[in-house]
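Exercise 3.2. Students should predict the tertiary structure of the chain below and write it as structure tokens, then compare their answer with the key that follows.

Predict this chain's 3D structure.
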Amino acid sequence: MRILTFDTSGDKMYVTMGNDGQVDISRIIENTAQRYHSASLIPIIAELLREKNITMQDINAVGVNIGPGSFTGIRASATVARIMAQNLNIPVIGISSLEIFSLINNTDKNSLCLLDARKGKAYTGVYTPEADVIKEPTALEYNDIIDFAKNNDFFIIADKIMSEKLKAEGLECVNLQETDYDFGINLAKLTYKHLKTDDREQFKWFNLKPLYIQPPPITMPKNTK
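Answer key:
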């Protein structure tokens, strides 16, 4: 089964193509001030298709990161994934950022995955060492997260902001910004895993929705008078 996956939810864009969970090609594109990476998604996909000498009709499934993360990036990739799945009549699998991060865990501990959500909260998810969901992604208060982490023996994975808060409390964690991990490969592995184990009816294109746990931040226009 040939699977295409992509992720534009964060500072880097990940695009992979492979068979049965084994990645043949992987691209990591840095976001820059000059060009937001979601604008490069379609050209990168076209490049990978040319490199493999195939067309979109050869793709059997699509996997996409549905968040949490950049609202613009999540919306862009989810839209592309839905259109592809609808036009090609293939399954589309949405995977949470936190589930993708959890595959970093190489211990027998459960994973606690955290992303700063602003306003004193963080997106929080708990997973088994095999990346099965224990606690679905939600937004929790900082203090509640600290207490939760201290009262359990987790393998903790967090972004820079949450890493600093945890370390200030004496808690060890993996700082996502300090890793060079290819999360596109994790997305590909999880896409194939869900295709094998889950009910495929849920992977219809119209069921795919971005994971917006909190409403997007709103910036009011300045009064120019």
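Discussion points: The radius of gyration is 18 Å. Strands lie at 2-7, 12-19, 22-30, 61-67, 92-96, 111-118, 121-127, 133-141, 155-158, 174-175.
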